[in-house]
Structure prediction request, 548 residues.
Amino acid sequence: MSTTLANQQRSKIISLLSPAYLWLTVAIFLPLSAMLYFSFLSDVPFGQTEWHLTTENYQAFFQTTTYAKLLWKSIKLGLIVTGFAVLVGFPCAYVLAKVIQGRAREALFLLVILPFWSNSLVRIFSWAIVLRGNGVLEIGLNAILPFEVDVNLMFSTPAIVIGLVHSYLPYVILTSYLALQAIDDNLIDAARSMGAGKHTILWRIILPLSLPGLLAGAVLIFVPVVGSFMEPRILGGRVGTYFGTVIEDQFVAVFNWPLGAALSFILLAVVLVILALSSPILRRAQT
Amino acid sequence: MSGLLLARLGKIWLFCILVFLYAPILVMAFMSFNASQYYQLPFEFSLKWYEKLAGNAEILDAATRSILIALVTTVIATVLGTAASVALFRFEFRGKRFLQVMLFPPIAIPWLITGTAMLIFFYGIGLGRGTPSVIIGHVALAIPYVIVVVSARLATFDHTLEEAARSMGASGWTVTRRVTMPWIAPGIIAGALFAFAVSFDQFVVSYFLSEPGDSTLPVLIYTSIRKGFTPEINAISTIIITVSMVVMLIAARFSNFGGER
Prediction:
């Protein structure tokens, strides 16, 4: 009796779960495995081509410094963008969570999060219009400032950084806001009543308690930025060569898929190391 | 510094952030109504880029394709995702934690990696590039979002409601239809809207999986930008950003996403 019940339950669980997870397996996990296999091939195994198993593609990464340098350049870009986003976003989240009250808070919070859910490509494109020489930024600054300035940020590293910070800023505001909101105001009041100054409250209460949320936001920004290619392409032009754009090239321009697969896998390894290192923090941020 | 002054500075900071977030989008929208092709000021109101857009078959085709792909993705991902979240919520079984962790990679791994991996795999199994591949990819990216949103709603569900209904003689199906479903409906609607947004705004995966000449709207925009941008792209971009923001506003109403409750 109880075994039939258990069987019934098990078949129910399987019929509810398997469609979604089969789909994820076919579209995510098998492709990732296929890519790992591909990264060890000498050539694309379609049609008449001769191919064999090799580690050449990984050797290409380690023997020349070109790819390693680009990876480092991408990691640096990730650190810079994450740094700016944290510095700009955390105070903003603090104001939202602790200064503004009531309905205004909800409306403002939604307003901050909303752009994040709109098309990222289009938002990057909108920066191209603002930052180009003789663009809106230049005209606007010259209208305000008493002296002529020449602002042509387009096709430069600052343009890429501005665009990426704009793209991912809402992440760190969202996670920090949720963490800050969970801090009990009574705790802050208690500290204040016992004579703690603003600095003490900030360094001893607010920062330690909101750190998991802040770090979760930082990881959520850093990971996609290291793998970005569309933003550097559009805003960086010729200076916009990064690890991500080199991978893109292997698939859409050079058609060296095995090398592209190897480079993708190296990027994945970097991402996984970062996620693994931060997983205790991320788990703490969840609860 | 007094607390009041700090609070005021904080509000000014928040205002600056909002300007930073919205200014470029507003500039783009503004310029799509400007007559000059090279974004020259002074501003001269014109609808000519929207008129040109209405006559651009390539962009309209891509827009139609993007909407159709997003609708198909939404239906499949919402059904599969909701079923999975119900199972994850209602039953205790071995490996549940593992299944929950498996939702993480599609969200956390950069789309560049996922997209190129899909390209390789779909070529390997003979499917190649094209709209079916794009849909398969989009559904996989959308499923975790649906599960997260629907599960969040389910977590607020009171089991005793079901028990009460059952004790008063309601059958299992009636309980599901009259008690459980009405409760999680807002979560499902929000999940569906998220799925639509994930697909409609998706660029990276579509870029690697769509056939040249058969591309989605974001892919077409990207290739046009790289060729040198035109105000028509401006106009279509303005439309896209308006659509996706409206969709997300509706989703936020249904899910209380990031809200306080």
